[in-house]
Model the fold of this input.
Amino acid sequence: MSMLFQLRVMTAVLRQARLAAVISTLLAAAALLLASLSSAPGLVALTLALASLLAAGVQAYYAARVGFDAALLEAMQACHPDAAPGVIDDVLQKLGLRDAQATSRGWQARWQGMRRLMRWQLLALGAQALLLLAAHLCRSVPW
Done:
């Protein structure tokens, strides 16, 4: 399999994370609505809604990292489709985004790292959804 094809496949995989970011934004809006809907939403429900917003922040962090990796891969496709991953390291070091003392990683280690970031993003989205659901259920339970 050519390197260009591998770059395109991994970029396509990473681009799927955009849907998770959109869903997270909608869930965050629902959490804000739930927290502000009534004058007394209950302390437990309010705490869960705020925790859901915190999970949204974590998801946004990972979404930014995944999006950056996707953009890096797109740049590699456009400029150096058959280049080694060291090209990315060199550029990041010159821009001050990577420590000069860090060791270079191969493509397999990079793919693994990119997938791990995407999994953390999806886990944060899941936590956000569960916390919001719990906040909604607690709101309807009389304490």
